[in-house]
Amino acid sequence: MKNGIIISILTAIIVYFYISENTSLKILAIVLTILAAIYLFSKQAVVYNYYKSKLSDFKQDSSAPFININKVSWKILMLIPNMDKMTAKHIVHNRRHFGNYKNFDDFFKMNQIPEEKREEIKKYIFI
Predict the structure, then answer these.
(1) Does the pLDDT of residue 112 top 90, yes or no?
(2) I need a labelling partner for 93 at 20 to 30 A (CA). Which of 29, 76, 86, 119 fits?
(3) Is 79:51 a contact under the CB 8 Å cutoff?
(4) Which of 86, 88, 48 is nearest to 56 (CA)?
(5) How many whole angstroms separate alpha carbon 11 and alpha carbon 37?
(6) Buried b (16+ CB within 10 A) or exposed e, 79-96
(7) Looking at per-residue confidence, does 39 or 104 come out higher?
C-alpha cells in the first residue's frame, strides 16, 4: 500500500515534468524515471540478499529470530531450512486471504506444518 502511494506521487511528478515546456524539467523527469525503475527492479533482490546474509550468519543457539512471518515474501521464506516452495507459497497465500498471523499456534495450524518441522522453523521466525 505504502509503495503504491509513493509510486503514484512519483509518477504524477514525472508526468508533470514531461509535459513541461522547460527542457531541464524534462531531463529531470527522465532521470527520475530511470531511478524509479532501478529502485523497483532492485528492491526485491536487495531484500532477498539481506535475509540470505542474515541466515548465513545465524547461530542456532544464540541468535534471535529475524524473519517477520507477516511481512516477507515466499522467496524469503524458502531460505528457512526445511521450508519448501509450496509451504512458503501457502503461508503467504493464507496471510493475504485470512489476515496476519496472531501467534505460532495459529500459524502452524493454518499452514498444516508437521510437528517435526515446527521447532526448526520457530528458530528463524517471529510474529
Answers:
(1) no
(2) 119
(3) yes
(4) 48
(5) 11
(6) bbeebeeebbebbbebbe
(7) 104
